[in-house]
Every structure is written in structure tokens, then in C-alpha cells.
Fold this sequence. Notes:
The structure holds two protein chains of two kinds.
Chain A: H1 3-10, H2 30-34, H3 40-66, E1 69-70, E2 78-79, H4 83-91, H5 95-125, H6 130-138, H7 145-155, H8 162-169, H9 184-209, H10 213-221, H11 226-237, H12 239-255, H13 258-263, H14 275-284, H15 289-317
Antiparallel strand pairs in A: 1-2
Chain B: H1 2-6, H2 9-41, H3 44-48, H4 63-70, H5 73-104, H6 110-120, H7 126-137, H8 159-163, H9 170-181, H10 185-193, H11 198-209, H12 211-227, H13 230-236, H14 245-251, H15 259-292
Helix pairs in contact in B: 2-15, 4-15, 5-9, 5-12, 5-14, 6-9, 12-15
Amino acid sequence: MTDQQDRATRYGQAPAPLPDLIDDAPPLTLRQRISSKSVAPWIFLSPMLAFGVIFFLLPIIFAAYISLTRWNSLTAPRFVGLKNYEYLLTGDPKFWGTVWNTIYFAAGTLAVGIPLALVLAYAFTRAYGQAFWRSIYWLPMITNVVAVAYIWKFLLDDSFGLVNMALGKLGLPGPGWLTNPGIAMISVILVFVWMQLGHNMLLFSAGLANIDESYYEAARLDGASESQLFFRITVPLLKPTILFVLITNFITGLSYFTLMLVLTEGGPVGATNVTALYMYKMAFEDLRMGRASAVAYILFAFILVVTLIQLRVFRRGGVEAH
Amino acid sequence: MAIVQSRSGGAIAWRILKYALLGAGVVIMVVPFIDMFLGALRTPAERLANPPVYWPRDPQWINFKRVFTETPALIWFKNSIIITFAVTFIQLLTSSMAGYALAKFRFRGASLLFRGVLGAQMFPFFLFIIPVFFILRYFPMAGGNDLFGQGGSGFLNTYAAIILPFTITWYGIFLMRQFFMGVPDELLDAARLDGAGEFRIFFIIVLPLVLPGLATLGIFVFVYQWNEVIWTMTITRTAPDLQTLPVGIYLLRGAFADEATQSLQQAAVAVSIIPVMFTFLFLQRFYVRGLTAGAVKG
């Protein structure tokens, strides 16, 4: 507060107008100016804006440019137009295989993971000992992916892993979980579902907690069975949450590749080589930055279409997506 | 119990089934961790036996010490701590600053910026790996580079290269904005009338009010960053001094390939899990809020 204002209030007069409106008032100091209501928000936003330009807008444009070049990162990039895209979509013997693997993985995690998470969340939501169940089911979700990969590498070992030893005790032949090209992707899907189960259970149980208990009580009075309660009340009322989990899981699945990189390195014989992993190895092992950026953009375009469908569905379904 | 008795037989059967399901799930969730733990305690001889000995007869607790003396785990551990704490602190600061501006100030372009924050979340991480790597590599005036980004190695081979791409997350900004929306405008106006500057208001008055929000974002970022693999690996592939626990364990996998050293690998894996497990057990209620905020409505 300026002296002038101070004096005015002290003598019981109406406070003087704000100093910057008075012509002969002393000019604001730099300090006051910076912490004024009109400048402050921009200072609060400055880290975000700087980051947004350097690590968000610039990379998006830069990646688009690289995708139009041939560049091994050691010599100068050479502009080749749309050749990278053309090669990937029409000439590359591996690209479409990785797309198929990506869809297989994303759809597989949904098919296995969503029903499992839904049923377990339903059992969990009205059970005793919430804190206990929760801590255990979330354990894999907070475990780093390298640990998950090495835990399962030992468990799924062909001859001496716990899984195949247990199957052997039951007299069943244990498959080569990570060595058989026909089975490796299924193993990756199962491990991923194991990792993500707690996350999806959490989303479902948040949705389940929103369902009014009175629906169930009314239905029980009418003599509904437990399975009727689940399929006639829970599932319909939970539809927005189920849709949300389905679509966000699908998008995550399409862009995911860390587990494949660490657990199977895309093998055996490319059976778990998803498109994002194909891009990563193309860039940092084969040093084909241009073509890898084109892979990234094609995959991104595909994911964007799915995302836009998601937004439409949610607007109609009344779910606010973040 | 009277309530249970008044229910039908089907309801009781469902109760039993419910706990059987949850129990079976627990076995599948926990057994892998126990398997790893037992593995860390085995002797090389027990591993070499045919078939291998499953329950270690002479548990090698010393393996948890050997991990730190015979592998670079101590360096990895130190790097994990430095990077995780730095990223968590920076993100709490930047996200709350931006979230506060978007929640509590009216200015030209505010809604456009907020829509930008929401839209930016649609861009997947993999799209940024290649360009950001080279932006850091050719960053002007960093790591011996000249004004045009030539001559040196930029931010590569420094902590900055690992930390900078995680100084801000759009989700963090969104989350903090939601928490700031709950702070009443009257409180801010009262502080302004008392002559407090905007920064004093933010740091002294508003931030303490959103401590639950900071805890939520903090535990979220902590768990994420401790477990981050792809980016850290991309940057530190040729810089062993900067590797974190998960990345170090993965990149040194060749040295852990035989029966003599596999127990050490499993012990290292256990070491990489334990800190985040304990943090999580104490702060999990905040984690729930982070995951469900904005996800489910209706």
C-alpha cells in the first residue's frame, strides 16, 4: 500500500483510487508490476509454456520433418518426400506384421483383462478387508516393468519355471511360453493383464461405488438372483465406466511396447514385435531415424482415429474423459 | 448373523464364491513375488541341480549385500533416488503453478490454453522419443554446443537429459487445476485486499490448502518415475554412471545369465521394487484419487 492510501484510510476518508490510476502517482516498482493480477498468471504459466514449445510443439514438427528425410543421425538428413511412408505401407515386409501384432496385443489385453477386472472389482467392492485386497492387487501395478519381466522370465522358463513344473505335476505338457512363436504373444498379454489388473479393478470399483445400494435391495426384495443382479443392474449401470476402461485400455495397448522390449525383445521370430517397438529398434539400433519417424506418425494417426471415436462416444455417453 | 440368514441360499453361495475368487486372485498376484524372493536366496549349486532345488535349504541372505558390493546397484540406487526426487519436486512445482493459473485467473486465452492441456494428453509418448532425443543432443549452448547446437554433445550424458522431458506432464497440470478449483475466490480476494502479492498468496496461502492434491500428484509421479524405463534407457545406454535400478538391471542382463549370478539378479530386482512398495503402502489412498480423478463420472 502506498503512503497516500495509508493516510487516507487512517483519517477515516474514502480510500484513494488505486495508485496507477492517478496521473501523478509514483510509478509501480518492477516487483509490484510482476506480482500484479494481470502479469502473475503468465509467470505461473511460463514453465508450462516454455516446456510446451521446446518439448511438445517443436518435437511434433521436428518428427514430421524427420519422417520426410533419410537420416542416420550421423550425417546430414536428406529430404526424400513421402518415400518413407510409401515404403512402409507398400514395400516393407515387416510393417503390416507389426500392425497385426499391435492389434492382437491390444485386443487380447481387453478380451482377457476387462472381464477379469470387472468380476474381481465386483467381488472386491462390497467385501470385507478392502485395504488388504487392495494392497495385494496393486502390487504388480507399482512394480517396474524390468522387475515384472525378470520375475516372469523365471516363472515361464521352459523346463524349470514354476508354471511348467506345476503343469508337469498335474501331468500336463508345459508349452514354451516365451520360446514358441505361436504362444509368446499370449504370454505377453497374460503378463500385461497381470500388471494392469489392479489399475482396471480400481477404475471399475470407483464406478461400482457410485451405484446406489437401493437398486440391489429393491431387486433382492423382488427375488432376483445374484447373477441377475450382476447382469441386469451392475453391467447396465456401469456401462459408461466399462466403455471408458475399454477405450483407454485399447489406446494404451496400441502404443505400448516396454514389456515386449524387456521380456521378449520382440521375438521369438518377431512374434511379439509390435509397431511401437519396431519404431524404437529401427531408430536406436538400425539408426533409420527418418523411416522410424514415419512409423511413429502412421501409428499415431491410427491411434488418433481411435481417440476421436472415443471422444464422440463419451460425449454421447455422458462420461467426462480427461 | 440375522442378515445373512434372511438372505437366500444363492446369496450365501455368492459370498463364498466372492472370497474364493478374491483369494485365488491373491495367489496369482503374490506367488510371482515369492518365486523371485526364493530365487534371490538360492545357492548356485541349488540352481545347477537337476531338477533345481525350489526351496533354498541354506538361504543366502548375503545375496542382498552382494548386490551392492558386486554389481553397480549402489550407483543405480543413487541415480534412481536423485532422478525420482528431482522429477517429483519439479513436477509438483510446475504443475501446481500452471494448474493454479488455469483455475484461478481470468485472462485472454485461458480457455484455449486449458483445451490445449487436455488435447496434448492425446499425443502418445512414443511420438516424442526420437525428436526429443535430438533436441537434447543439439540444444544450443548446452554441453559444449555453440549457438547453433553444433560442436558438443548437448544434454546427453547428463541428469538433465533424463529429467528435462519430465519437468511437466499435462495430466499433472489438469489434476492440480481440479484441486485449485476447490479453493474459494473470496479467500484470494481477501488476501489481495490485505496487500499480499500474487506469489505470496500462491506459496503461503493457496499451496497449503491443496496439500492433498500435492500428495496425490507426488505419489503418482514418484511411482511413475521410479519405474520409468524407456526414456532413461534411451539416454543412458552408453552412460552407465547415470543408469537407474530398472535400467541398470536390464542393460547388464548379459552379466546375470549364468547360475552363479542369477540369484544376484533376482536380489537386484527385489531391491528395485522395495522402495516404491513401501512408499505406496503408506500413501496408497492418495494414489487412488490420482487414478480416478476425471476418469469416472456418471
